[in-house]
Design brief:
heterodimer, A: 321 residues, MetI-like fold, flat, B: 249 residues, mainly alpha, D-Maltodextrin-Binding Protein, domain 2, 2 domains, two-stranded parallel ribbon, 3% strand, MetI-like_sf (chain A), MetI-like (chain A), Sugar ABC transporter permease (chain A), transmembrane (chain A), cell membrane (chain A)
């Protein structure tokens, strides 16, 4: 687009010179070719790394694949059979509920904690930069490290969490090995990992709010609480919305933390759609690629729905202002 | 406690009770929700006389109840639900545990552990050596459209499986050989492998009994049943009945 427009401007610019204006409306063939040449890298990148994998995943979910037909490429088309199998599976409803609970709880607590910390660090006291940097540590660690560390800490027999609880005469709690606690454990670990992201984005959002507003409010006698709810929170709304949307997409597809800590168990008690999809596709020596891809597509559809909802809300907000 | 008295499940459980009474920990193994969990459960499963074609038999229930009882009585830690064979070994290496279920690949680590150890085969329910599942490396020659390569494939396989090369491979990977000749050589260089050589003689393939590609599905239900039971969500009978009906589909 930009390329075409520049060309047109250059063409109009040259209209003042000697060349006749009639040929200038449309770019010449070599120029058009050049335009496509500029577009080619991004188009081929999108097709190769986004459109084709999505198409492949859709195709995978509509065929009856086995290891043999995966290699030979002759899997019979089976329509929506994989989806029907997934919906009828006794794992489906628990996995869906766990995904929703996991995502909602993680988002809510991550956002609240991230916002509280952002407001706190926005006061720019001494050492605030150092402390803020420390809060970024969970973000810097490879997920396999943080998830394994959580798994050690929450170990029933030798974990530090149960050791501390023991001092207070509580427990031991089977964090990762009891169906009652496993989902809570992975939620706690995921919240810890997600706080830095919320902190960073919301903190940069806070920087954009003019200090003059707070001064004016303080002069008018607004309390700190009122300043937060009447100034910070409303002005942070666009940043909050994008934080929550990105957080939602990250959280829906969280797989590594859960897989490393509990493998989705015991007895599916911490299985989400993401871990279930992996388990179907790769968890058994006899993979079920079709149903695995179907579950993956369901996740894509859920994320897409929330993305569209976000765009609609944003548009309405723009119309309102 | 005299280890030679451990001959069957009853004497093993009695030994675990003694260990617990002495303030130590009993046994650790891997009951994780993956193939490793099935792999470690199968010697007990088969040792009861159960068959993979009938997961909800009385014998199978007895095997699962054995593990479940150990957890309930505190002879085995709750962490077995998460243990891979490696983490289970790490628990044993702390020196607090009397027993651990593992394979030849940990023998070198046992020598390094710095405490006395002994090796016994996994007992069957009423004595004898329980059949353990075989594992390791296999040579597979797939059927090809172009049969011209078969002579070369044959040469490669013959070379890889020759006694001398098999000894070298098995020693490097800490495996037990599949033939008497290889096993004899291994036993003479490392007498501690003798127990495992006996175990391999009693061993059984997981896809045996004409299961073939049905095994992965059965195994998934089996480790699921173990997890469901040991985590307390189902009784051994209920878990195995559910597993059988899911695997039978």
């Amino acid at each position: 687009m930009t390329v075409l427009m520049t060309q047109r401007r250059r063409a109009t610019g040259s209209a003042g010179s000697a060349s006749p204006p009639s040929t200038l409306r449309r770019p010449k063939a070599p120029e058009r070719l050049a335009a496509w040449g500029f577009l080619a890298p991004v188009v081929s990148y999108l097709v190769l790394f986004y459109a084709y994998p999505l198409y492949r995943n859709l195709d995978l979910s509509l065929r009856d694949y086995t290891v043999r037909s995966f290699v030979q490429g002759d899997a019979p088309f089976s329509g929506l059979a994989n989806y029907r199998a997934v919906f009828a599976d006794p794992t489906f409803v628990p996995a869906l509920v766990h995904t929703l609970v996991f995502t909602a709880l993680s988002l809510l607590v991550q956002y609240a904690a991230g916002l509280a910390l952002a407001v706190f660090f926005n006061q720019n006291f001494r050492l605030s930069a150092t402390l803020r940097a420390l809060f970024l540590v969970p973000w810097l660690l490879p997920l396999i490290v943080s998830a394994s560390t959580w798994a050690w800490m929450l170990n029933s027999d030798s974990g530090v969490v149960n050791a501390v609880l023991h001092w207070f005469g509580v427990g031991p709690v089977d964090w990762l090995t009891s169906p009652q606690w496993s989902l809570a454990s992975v939620v706690i670990a995921n919240i810890w990992i997600g706080i830095p992201f919320n902190l960073v984005v919301l903190y940069s959002g806070l920087q954009a709010i003019p200090a003059g507003l707070y001064e004016a409010a303080a002069v008018d006698g607004a309390s700190a609480w009122q300043r937060f709810w009447r100034i910070t929170f409303p002005l942070l709304r666009p940043v909050s919305a994008i934080t929550l949307l990105l957080g939602l997409i990250y959280t829906l597809k969280v797989f590594d933390i859960i897989w490393i800590m509990t493998r989705g168990g015991p007895s599916d008690s911490s299985t989400t759609l993401a871990t279930w999809s992996y388990r179907l596709g790769f968890g058994s020596p006899l993979p079920q690629f079709g149903p695995g891809a179907a579950v993956g597509n369901l996740l894509v559809v859920i994320a897409l729905a929330f993305g569209l909802l976000y765009i609609r809300l944003q548009r309405r907000q723009q119309e309102a202002t | 406690m005299d280890i030679t008295q451990v001959k069957d499940w009853a004497s093993l459980t009695a030994a675990l009770a003694k260990v617990k009474a002495a303030g130590k920990k009993g046994i650790t193994f891997s009951a994780i929700g993956t193939e490793e969990g099935s792999f470690q459960f199968l010697p007990w499963f088969w040792g009861s006389g159960a068959q993979l074609t009938k997961l909800d038999s009385a014998q199978a229930t007895a095997a699962l109840s054995l593990w479940n009882g150990w957890l309930k009585d505190g002879y085995a830690p709750n962490s077995v639900l998460q243990n891979t064979q490696t983490t289970s070994w790490q628990e044993f290496a702390t020196g607090d545990f009397a027993f651990a279920e593992n394979g030849t690949w940990q023998l070198a680590n046992a020598k390094k552990a710095g405490f006395d150890y002994g090796i016994i085969p996994i007992p069957g329910q009423s004595g004898g050596t329980a059949p353990a599942p075989t594992g390791g490396e296999f040579v597979t020659v797939p059927a090809q459209k172009d049969t011209g390569r078969y002579t070369v494939s044959d040469k490669i396989v013959t070379c890889l499986t020759s006694a001398a090369n098999a000894v070298a491979t098995d020693t490097t990977l800490s495996y037990i050989g599949a033939t008497d000749a290889v096993q004899g050589q291994q036993a003479s260089t490392d007498p501690e492998l003798q127990v495992w050589i006996q175990a391999v003689k009693a061993a059984k393939g997981r896809t045996s009994d004409d299961l073939g590609t049905k095994y992965p599905k059965i195994s998934e239900q089996l480790w699921g049943a173990v997890q469901n039971t040991l985590s307390g969500s189902k009784s051994p009978q209920a878990a195995l009945a559910a597993a059988q009906s899911a695997a039978g589909q």
